[in-house]
Amino acid sequence: MPGLIDTELGQIILSEDVIATVAGYAAGDNFGIVGMSGKTAKDALIQFVGGTNHKRGVKVTPIDNGSAVDIDMYVTVAYGVSISAVGKNTVDNVRYRVEEMTGLKVNHVTVHVEDIRV
What we know:
Blueprint: E1 3-7, E2 10-14, H1 16-28, E3 33-36, H2 41-48, E4 58-63, E5 68-78, H3 83-102, E6 105-117
């Protein structure tokens, strides 16, 4: 089930792709993140044909009947940066941006460092 926000006028339903796109933009704004690692065949195909996919490397898992989400991010970091500092900044930035833009509670943000690039 995607993200679900109840209002006095009805419900707002956010697809997992929208939440993943917001999280992908937020992660890309962090110093030290040089790329996202695709985890699906769709991600690989879009990369192969040269398209941009801001939700690449982001997995969103709705919890609590869609009122909250868990986010897994698969990133590539720059060589020479503090991986722990980049990870903490990414977690804080993604949590803030997703909660601010969507109104959903972010339960956990997990950053998986897949590669280091010069």
